[in-house]
Write a structure and sequence with these properties.
The protein is mainly α and 306 residues long. The protein is built from 13 helices and no strands.
Length: 306
């Protein structure tokens, strides 16, 4: 056995445990965000900016080129959508529960499936359609629980859903770019850069604080970047080379469960019965959606939104 084949065999052995680590990392994102004493736009901006700083040396080492022409502009649009996703979803955590926010933002595959059918003519199986319907019903159940906790919860739930739609735009554009030959590392850096540049003026105009944080806040910002952003997103996308997409996408469905459990243990935030019921229905719906189309998400798509 050659040295290269041994390395490949070692990668295959650690791929499945890596999926477990990646899911834990993205599942903890909402908790880290709550612990960071910074405005939502500040967290979103620094999460993307620090991600670029962390990935740039690796891109330079691998000599990956920046996309040009229409690929460059498409990447900028995708990154802007990513910035909108982070900005709205992180803001939702200020108004609604971690459990409700993470479940609602996890409905991204529903919007991807609907948009792919309407815009790209991709066929959707009966099982996937049933999953979409269930996910919508579960979302309605969670939204219906909001009036009991005030208008703030309604706003938080809406922001989480807007975050899911924005992530769907990022996924759909990313699919076309990656199949067009744009490297995953180049696309990630381009997307994070565009997201940070889109968030910067919004943060400045809204008066959101971008610096002058305490050492504790900077610590959590670095944890968010190294954990959910790199150890979560990057590891899951790497594992797709060795683990079937259906297994990875199914494992990612545990993200809302992990987030809700951690919120209960760390933040003493116990989800209400309607959130639990609606969350369960959404997860079942997403599972059916992914089972009905095992090719989604593909290797070129981000798998999570945390």
């Amino acid at each position: 056995m050659t040295r290269e084949s041994k390395l490949e065999s070692a990668r295959e052995r650690i791929a499945l445990p890596a999926v477990f680590v990646g899911v834990l990392a993205v599942g903890a994102a909402a908790i880290f965000i709550r612990l960071a004493d910074a405005p939502a736009l500040g967290i979103a901006f620094w999460r993307c900016t620090l991600g670029v700083i962390a990935l740039s040396p690796l891109a330079a080492f691998k000599r990956e080129r920046v996309p040009k022409g229409r690929y460059l502009w498409a990447g900028v649009v995708a990154g802007t959508a990513l910035g909108a996703h982070f900005g709205t979803w992180i803001a939702s955590l200020d108004y609604t529960s971690v459990a409700a926010s993470v479940v609602l933002v996890s409905t991204t595959p529903v919007f991807v499936a609907v948009a792919a059918y309407l815009l790209l003519g991709e066929r959707t199986s009966v099982l996937s359609c049933a999953g979409i319907v269930l996910a919508i019903v579960g979302t309605a159940v969670i939204a219906g629980a909001a009036p009991g906790t005030g208008n703030a919860a309604i706003l938080g739930n809406v922001l989480a859903l807007v975050g899911a739609v924005a992530m769907a735009v990022y996924v759909l554009i990313g699919r076309s770019l990656r199949t067009g030959g744009v490297g995953a590392l180049s696309y990630s850096i381009l997307g994070y850069s565009a997201a940070a540049l889109a968030l910067l003026p919004v943060a400045l105009l809204s008066g959101a604080q971008l610096w002058g944080y305490s050492a504790t806040t900077w610590f959590w910002l670095f944890v968010i970047t190294l954990g959910p952003q790199l150890l979560g997103h990057t590891v899951l996308n790497w594992a797709l080379e060795y683990v079937p997409a259906s297994i990875v996408s199914g494992a990612v469905l545990a993200e809302p469960v992990i987030a809700a459990l951690l919120a209960w243990l760390v933040l003493s935030e116990k989800p209400g019965s309607a959130t639990l019921l609606g969350g369960l229905v959404v997860l079942v719906g997403l599972y059916l959606l992914l089972r009905g189309d095992v090719s989604s998400p593909s290797r070129s798509e981000p798998l999570d939104s945390g």
